[in-house]
Every structure is written in C-alpha cells, then in structure tokens.
Design brief:
The chain is mostly helical. The protein is built from 13 helices and no strands.
C-alpha cells in the first residue's frame, strides 16, 4: 500500500522565519508595552458609561443631549484604544480630532448666555445635515438608476425649502448655500474662542502637524520610506511609535475629560478626573502635565463662570 508523502509548503522559507534565527527580533506587542495607558483609557470609558446609567431624568431632552455627546466621546476613547493596541497611532489621530471638535463645540455652547437655546440650535443644525444627507442619497440613487421613494424625497425637499432659513448663507446670485456649522464658526475659530489658552496650540498640532497622518498624505509615508535599516532601526521605530502613541493617548484623555466636564447634566467626580490626570502625568513622565492643574475648584470655577461671553 502506497504511503502518501507530506507536501512541503512552498511558501515557507528558511532563514528569518525560523525560530532561533538571530535576525529575528522578538518584542512585546503595543498592547503589552502600553498596558498602563490602555488600561486608563478603558477605565475612563467604562466610568463614563456608568455615569450615563446613573444620570437622573434621562428622558429630558437637555439631559439626553448631554448623554449622547458623552457617549459619542466615550466611543471615541474606546475606538482610539482599539487602534493603539495594535500600534496604529496614525489612524487613532483621526479619532482624537473628533474628540477635539466635540470639545470646542461644547465649550462654545457652554459659554452661551442661554445654553438650552444653543442646544436647540445645535440639534436643528444636526437635523439639517441629516436632511441634506437624504437629499444627496436620493440624487445618488437616481444617478445610478435605482428606485427612489418619491413621497419621502418630496418631504425632504419641502423641509429644506421652508424650515431652515436661518442656516442659509448669503449668496450674490441668490443660489441656495448652507452655512458650514451650527454656530457659523470653524473648528479653528472655536479653538481661538476657547477659554483655555492651549486650544489654539492643540489645534495647530492636530490639524497641521499631524494632518498628514489623518489624511494619509505623502508626509505620513516619507519617514518610513527613507528609514535606514541599520542595526538599531527596529528599536528606534518602536520607540518613535510608542512616543506618538502616548502623545495620542494624552490628548485623547485630556480632551475627553474636559468634554465630560462641559456637560452639566451628566454626573462626574472631580476627584476622579484629577486622579486620572495625575496617573497620566506620572506615566508619561511629565511632572508639569497638564499645563494648568485641574483641581476640583478649578473645574467648578470654569463650569460655573465661563471666561468669555456668548458671541451671540
């Protein structure tokens, strides 16, 4: 009886893939190397979710608004953590930018004389964006020759024609153009308007220095393209990646905690916030971090007495 011979895998190559080869450098994964930082991210996100569950009057629209903003932020923290566990800080930067935008918008909203009125304006602009998305979707379906619900499309057009006149931008030829944000300010302008003097600097880093990472621009690839593959290149690459990951975690934590503190209808412990920031400062080796200590007294003062009046 003939015996079958085990086929060799032609794709398996000797050398660097074999165990014991000195050319192979075994290093701990980002999940292991950054474990204390990643654990902190998970702890903060879980605490936010617990705060939502214990928030009274969740059916109140103003309370619900703050809950939804906090949950969007908490989901961003979890998304950044998942990417950073695999060492993908370049992709996590885009999530961190979302947190920054949420933060500067909520800071602006919180500084308005009537926050409830500002919340309604924010929500109405969200409804406008949803209807515009439906309009564009219907146009896409028509272009592809797909069926479109004519009655629904007509309802969308009717709302756009009559319900959001305050969001129309002035045009010389009378054409319909919409403003780009609920408060008619860009993210850069909101950063400049913040009571925190670090916001413009943070904007500069996220939207200029790290912009190529968020957009996968050539600048995101050039360093690796010309990296010298000498004896210590692996160690240097790991060190650089970890440093960028820690920077991303630092901003993620700072932005999310500040966002949480800007939401008056969701419970938050100032002592826990101070503790998380203290742990982050210790782990990152920055005794001067953050630049302005967030003591409970400091946080309370900023929430009760905004540093700037409403822009109207």
């Amino acid at each position: 009886m003939a015996t079958s011979k085990k086929r060799k895998n032609p794709r398996r190559r000797p050398g660097a893939q074999q165990a014991g080869n000195p050319q192979v450098r075994h290093t701990a994964s980002p999940k292991s190397r950054l474990s204390p930082f990643l654990k902190l991210l998970g702890e903060i996100a879980a605490a936010a979710e617990q705060a939502v569950l214990s928030t009274p009057d969740p059916s109140d629209q103003l309370v619900r608004f703050d809950i939804e903003i906090l949950m969007r932020g908490a989901n961003s923290v979890k998304a950044a953590r998942t990417l950073l566990e695999q060492g993908h800080w370049e992709h996590a930067v885009g999530v961190t930018r979302q947190l920054f935008e949420l933060l500067v918008n909520m800071e602006y909203l919180g500084a308005m004389e009537d926050r409830a009125q500002g919340t309604l304006l924010f929500a109405r602009f969200g409804m406008l964006q949803m209807l515009l998305a439906q309009q564009r979707r219907a146009a896409y379906e028509r272009e592809k020759g797909h069926p479109v619900d004519a009655q629904f499309a007509a309802t969308v057009e009717q709302h756009l024609a009559t319900d959001f006149m305050d969001f129309r931008a002035d045009t010389k030829n009378g054409s319909v153009r919409w403003v780009s944000s609920w408060c008619r300010r860009t993210t850069s302008a909101l950063a400049d308007a913040s009571s925190d003097p670090m916001r413009p600097h943070q904007y500069n880093l996220l939207y200029r220095v790290w912009s190529e990472q968020a957009h996968a621009a050539p600048g995101a690839l050039i360093a690796d393209l010309f990296r010298e593959a000498d004896q210590g290149w692996v160690e240097r690459a790991i060190t650089e990646n970890d440093r960028s990951s820690i920077d991303t975690i630092t901003f993620t934590v700072m932005f999310f905690l500040r966002l949480w503190l800007e939401l008056p209808h969701v419970q938050v412990s100032h002592e826990r916030v101070a503790g998380w920031l203290s742990r982050l400062s210790t782990m990152s080796g920055g005794p001067e971090f953050p630049s302005r200590p967030w003591t409970p007294e400091d946080v309370t003062a900023q929430r009760v007495s905004p540093a700037r009046p409403s822009a109207g």
